[in-house]
Design goal:
alpha+beta, four-stranded mixed beta sheet, 16 helices, 65 strands, 34% strand
């Protein structure tokens, strides 16, 4: 006891010095977390208290009062949140790295901020600042994009190979070597162009289009390609842009004359400014490069004479007479014309045109013309059918001219386009039909024949006659309109007039007589009067089934053969208000969260009306409802909004009827039901029913085994779902770890055996907190006084019944068995140590030496399991001083291994790993390690004693002592209460320990006894008096009924907060809970999993406990 006091005094002095140093010298704490973007909201980021050296710098008296918060009011709070008690950071939104302004550069995305840590303890000066860096890793969630979907660039056709042109770069919001843009690809025209991609200093890529082929605008003046940018992410993403390449023209082509020789005859009396011929040259370039100017060749010998008589228009190329021409025999003018374009530099035509101008002499007599009509007719009239084909003979023309030479050469023309002249050798001309005739457009044509000679001056003569075009049925009937549009209201009467059609025929007589009829596909719906064209309805139309009808109407004449014309009739069915509005659902189910401000939108009703215009428009109203004051308003567009704040706890659902009323005449309506459910908001805090200030005390006898029921915390929360799920914790008063509070059920039980001096009682004031699972979390706290009083009930129950001789035999047997077991343990330890030395070279074995009190050996096997061996503290017994060995609890610590929970301050056991705590906290673990060793040895002794006791029962009457309900066979794990054989008190005696060692052992036993199953429930003042004092397996049913009677069956289920925590958080919180005097956190104790019903079977009424 003295040594323990010295140790505690040293630890307190150490923390005082550490606290004084921390007050004088402030430390800088910094921690960095890394997360991936796009993770779901409320993802755990990390715990700021993990900053190096932070927890070591906090004084012990402030560790239970730490609170954390953001130091600055920045926009970080919109992305991350921190638990003010634990310091755990969580995401509040799905983080998009690209949407953060500080992360739009290629550099790493780091969010830096400060967390303030302070103590809530009164008059505590503690205040620390933790610098936090959160690195957001990029995810390839963005594809490369170009600034524009289409880019147009112009390249000269004279561009040489290797010429490059800058094009727009693509942009990728992602960063990193893989997620950013890695390559560009050109699709199309790869024989003429390629891409030149070069990296720039800022990490982006410069993209240029390089000419690698010969360009010729005159062959192809435009190209279209596609640029594709790809990143290196997985999956790979890409973006594309259309590249329009326009080939700019260069003046690389000279004008060319399409005709190089022109021959013109001009009369000598031709007046000035008369155009005689037009010269034409072309340039295949474009723009100014293709504009051509004409001029006389400056190198011809008679240039001055030509300029005096002729003029060429420089833009049109028309050659005109400007001077007075004089006929000279054999005189011919040869004019050379060239062309030049307006490019830079201009190009001269590659060829020239030559114009030969002949001047003709004048003086002549007119010719004689006579038309001979061969067909019968009155006067000078010839009948010609309109079906006459081209070349049909009409009349003969006789022409005579007594002049000779050119003056005797005669040329004749006919003045009607429907006829033409064909020469007859030495017999004049014949008049023939030149193109089809149509009596409907022109039935009488005047034909004039004019003949002129080639003399100088030219003289002419003419003759005329009439042509009557006879009618044929060559015109089909034609409707006045090619498309008729008619309207008729739906629900019409049969026989109502729809519209009237009219057709005309350009023929005459019987050929122009017309009859109407309809397409066969609509003869059941419509009919037309054959003579008048009136179309009537034969059916009753419904616009909602069909909005229009389109069909053909035909008109035929009575000619031979009969001809037919047609038109399209489009009948539009006009709407009447004959259809009421219809809701999309007969019942609408909407949800809205409670406590939203008045005017919040709930949702929108949806309805439709197949009518048109005003008939199809409708409004919404709320029908009469049983609700006295319905807290909703309905707008004309169907939007439902609240008129007050809703409270789910007052009313969780509303139901009413809505009506849709259209605007037609008469007004039509329809109705639907609306059910609005109010979703819960965490607006109510938990309410603790027990304990309360007027009922907050329970009493329990001392020396109750671990797991003994003490009382149950009763609370409820008016919220529902996760908001109403409760969790129970002990916040203060459990520094000695005497009690366990079930996180989910609120059952308070003994965590260890506790002894009170005779005639005394101890009062423990526990601060109980009940938290709900909502966000933000709400809680309530109450005090519970637990009185542990002295009682000699255990001594009375465990008195021997078989006499002193039986106890002596049991003691002797236990001593012998203990000796044999010790020898067996030593042999096993030797074998294990040899096995360890053989495996010492294996890198898979890790040995973590803990100072002073324990060595843990972790063997990471192939299946991921962990084998753990510990050795006890020096003062537990003298074994360590004599034998430097480690005890394996493979067989004797099945219970501890199954539960894998330790109250040690220096380590926490889990299934797959061992989490270590700082060395200064390990110094407080020797007491629990001593308990673990004692527990292992006592389990071994109990098994041997059970075998002996069972053998003894067989030799006797086979009936066990009914009063021995605390023996090993009755599932009681405290051997000192058995009343048979040796107890834990006998263990140090068997090893001949000194009195001082036995005192230390007894003290450790009373404080660090093994966790035991619940065998007895205490009385609780003013709460429940019906819990029995003693029960075992046989009383399981009675105990269950008693517990059910004591509990409120309507109590809401609590919330296991450990479901929200990661493995690392569980370990961190377990470590923090094991520090003496610190505020307890939620350390989950793994429930017992029965491996073999034949060994170490737990009672049926055993339940797991949580701290």
């Amino acid at each position: 006891m003295a040594s323990q006091s010295v140790i505690k005094l040293g630890i307190s002095l150490f923390y005082f010095v550490l606290y004084t140093f921390n007050c004088v010298y402030s430390q800088d704490f910094e921690i960095t977390f890394t997360i991936q973007e796009e993770l779901p909201k409320w993802t755990f980021v990390g715990n700021v208290s993990d900053a190096s050296g932070f927890m070591a710098s906090i004084p012990p008296e402030d560790r239970n009062h730490l609170s954390f918060g953001f130091l600055q009011q920045t926009n970080i709070k919109s992305i991350l949140s921190i638990h003010d008690e634990t310091g755990s950071l969580f995401t509040t939104v799905v983080i998009d790295r690209e949407s953060i302004s500080d992360c739009r550069i290629p550099a790493p995305c780091i969010l830096s901020f400060d967390i303030a840590a302070q103590s809530d303890r009164k008059d505590s000066p503690l205040f620390e600042i933790i610098s936090v860096n959160v690195v957001i890793k990029d995810k390839n969630d963005n594809a490369p994009t170009f600034p524009h979907n289409v880019q147009t660039i112009s390249i000269s056709e004279a561009a040489t190979n290797g010429s490059s042109y800058q094009i727009d770069n693509a942009n990728d919001d992602d960063t990193g070597d893989n997620n950013s843009i890695q390559s560009y690809e050109l699709i199309g025209n790869k024989n003429l162009f390629s891409l030149d991609v070069e990296p720039k200093l800022d990490g982006s890529l410069s993209v240029k289009l390089v000419v690698i082929g010969q360009l010729d605008r005159e062959k192809t003046d435009h190209y279209r390609s596609t640029i594709i940018a790809r990143d290196g992410g997985k999956p790979q993403r890409s973006g594309s842009m259309t590249l329009n390449i326009t080939i700019a023209d260069e003046n690389d082509n000279a004008p060319i004359f399409s005709k190089t020789a022109y021959n013109v005859t001009v009369k000598e009396d031709t007046p000035g400014n008369t155009g005689i011929v037009q010269i034409n040259a072309t340039d295949i370039d474009i723009g100014d490069n293709s504009l051509v100017l004409y001029r006389f060749s400056p190198h011809q010998s008679d240039l001055n004479e030509i300029k005096a008589l002729f003029y060429i228009h420089e833009h049109t190329g028309v050659l005109s007479v400007t001077g007075r021409l004089t006929y000279e025999p054999d005189k011919v003018f040869k004019i050379i014309v060239e062309a030049i374009d307006q490019g830079d530099p201009p190009r001269l035509s590659t060829n020239q045109a030559i114009v030969t101008v002949n001047v003709e002499d004048t003086g002549n007599n007119p010719p004689s013309v006579k038309v001979n009509l061969l067909t019968a007719g009155s006067g000078r009239v010839v009948n010609v059918s309109e079906f006459s084909t081209k070349g049909t003979f009409v009349a003969h023309v006789e022409v005579t001219d007594k002049d000779t030479g050119r003056n005797g050469e005669v040329v004749c023309i006919v003045g009607s386009p429907y006829f033409a002249l064909e020469p007859i050798t030495n017999k004049g001309f014949k008049i023939v039909v030149a193109k089809p005739l149509d009596s409907d457009t022109e039935d009488l044509i005047t034909v004039i024949v004019t003949c002129r000679d080639n003399g100088s001056p030219v003289l002419q003569a003419s003759d005329d006659f009439l042509v009557k075009v006879t009618d044929e049925n060559d015109n089909p009937p034609r409707f006045v309109k090619s498309n008729y549009v008619a309207e008729i209201y739906e629900n019409n009467n049969r026989g109502d007039v729809v519209t009237t059609v009219r057709a005309i025929d350009a023929d005459k007589g019987q050929n122009a007589r017309i009859e109407y009829y309809l397409d066969t596909t609509v003869r059941r719906q419509f009919a037309v009067d054959a003579s008048t064209g009136v179309i009537r309805a034969l059916d009753r139309f419904d616009r909602e089934n069909r909005t229009s009808w389109t069909f053909k109407v035909f008109a035929k004449d009575f000619g031979v053969p009969s001809l037919v014309g047609n038109a399209t009739v489009n009948v539009i069915i006009k709407d009447k208000n004959d259809v009421p509005p219809r809701f999309t659902n007969s019942t609408f189910y909407f949800h809205i969260r409670e406590n939203l401000p008045s005017g919040s939108e709930v949702d929108r009703l949806r309805a439709y009306d197949n009518d048109l215009d005003e008939n199809g428009k409708f409004t919404y109203v709320i029908s009469n409802t049983k609700e006295k004051k319905l807290p909703f308003s309905l707008f004309a567009d169907g939007v439902i909004k609240t008129t007050m704040e809703l409270d789910r706890e007052i009313k969780s659902a509303y139901q009413f009827t809505v009506i849709a009323i259209d605007k037609g005449e008469p007004k039509l309506t329809s109705s639907a039901n609306v059910v609005i459910r109010v979703d819960d908001d965490n607006d109510l805090s938990p309410r603790i029913i027990f304990p309360k200030p007027d009922n907050n005390t329970v009493v329990i006898d001392h020396l109750k085994p671990s797991g003994t029921y003490v009382t149950q915390i009763e609370a409820y929360d008016g919220d529902i779902g996760v908001n109403g799920k409760l969790a129970y914790v002990i916040e203060e008063g459990n520094a000695e770890r005497l009690f366990l509070l079930n996180l989910n059920t609120g059952i308070l039980s003994m965590a260890q055996v506790h002894e009170v001096e005779e005639g005394e009682e101890e009062n423990y004031r526990l601060v109980i907190a009940v938290h709900d699972g909502g966000i933000p979390q709400r809680s309530q706290r109450e005090e519970l006084n637990v009185i542990i009083k002295y009682s000699n009930e255990t001594t009375t129950q465990s008195s021997p019944v078989d006499g002193p001789n039986t106890n002596i035999v049991i003691v002797v047997v236990v001593i012998l068995l203990t000796f044999c077991l010790s020898v067996a343990i030593i042999i096993v330890i030797c074998v294990i140590r040899k096995f360890d030395r053989d495996r010492a070279k294996c890198p898979a074995i890790e040995i973590n030496k803990l100072p002073n009190n324990m060595t843990d050996i972790s063997d990471h096997q192939a299946n991921g399991s962990v084998v753990m061996m510990s050795r006890s503290y020096d003062k537990a017994d003298s074994l360590k001083k004599k034998k430097e060995v480690s005890f394996s609890f493979e067989d004797d610590l099945d219970g501890l291994r199954d539960h894998e929970v330790s109250f040690s301050n220096n380590s926490v056991f889990s299934e797959n790993h061992i989490a270590e705590v700082p060395n200064h906290e390990r110094q407080q673990s020797h007491e629990m390690k001593t308990f673990q060793l004692q527990h292992a040895l006592m389990n071994a002794q109990n098994k041997q004693w059970n075998q002996m006791n069972a053998h003894k029962i067989k030799e006797g009457n086979g009936i066990p002592n009914e009063k021995d309900n605390h023996s090993d066979t009755s599932r009681e794990t405290v051997t000192s209460d058995s009343g048979r054989g040796g107890s834990e008190d006998d263990l140090p005696t068997s090893h001949n320990n000194s009195k001082e060692e036995r005192d230390v052992h007894l003290s450790n036993k009373s404080r660090n006894s093994k966790l035991m199953k619940s065998q007895q429930q205490p009385n609780r003042y003013s709460h429940c008096e019906s819990v029995p004092q003693n029960y075992g397996i046989k009383n399981n049913t009675i105990q269950h009924q008693s517990q059910q009677h004591c509990r409120n069956t309507s109590r809401p289920q609590s919330t296991d907060l450990s479901d929200r925590l990661t493995n690392k958080q569980l370990v961190d919180r377990s470590l923090s809970n094991l520090v003496e005097g610190e505020k307890p956190k939620f350390t989950v104790r793994k429930p017992y999993m029965e491996k073999d019903s034949r060994r170490d079977k737990k009672p049926d009424n055993w339940f797991p406990s949580y701290v």
